[in-house]
Model the fold of this input.
Amino acid sequence: MRYDTRLSDVLHVVLHMAQQDGPLTSQALAGAMKTNPVVVRRTLAGLRDQGYVRSEKGHGGGWVLARKLSDITLLDIYQALGAPALFAVGHRSVSPGCLVEKAVNKALGGTFDDAQALLLSRFARITLAQLADDFRKGMAAHKRERKCVLEH
Done:
C-alpha cells in the first residue's frame, strides 16, 4: 500500500526552514527531501496561499516562514494541503441497494468519522514550535551520545 506522505514531507521541510536564518531554495529543500524541486514548489504553494510561508524571488531568494512556528498547528498545515484523506480504508459501493452493504458502510462511516474527528482535534493542539522543540532536544541528546562514543 502506498501512503500519502505530503503532511510529513511538508512538516519536514518547514522545520528545515525554521533552522535557517535566510531563504532556502526549492532545490536545497528538494535535496533534503530527496525529491524534485517542482514537488517542493507545488507543495509549498498551498502553504503560501494560506500565509504560512512566502517565496522571495531573485538572487538569494527562496522560501521563508511567514509566521512564527508557535502560530501554526498540524491542523493548519493539513488543511493547507487540501485536507487529504487520513485513512486508506474506504466504503464498498458496488451494490448501493444491498442492506448488508448499507449496514457495513454505516458502521464503518461512523467509526471513521469519530477517528478522524479525534485525530484532527489532536492536530489542532500540536504547534510546529512543539515539533521544533522536540527536534532540538533530539539533536542535543544525539550530540551528547556521539561525544560519549567518541570519548571511549
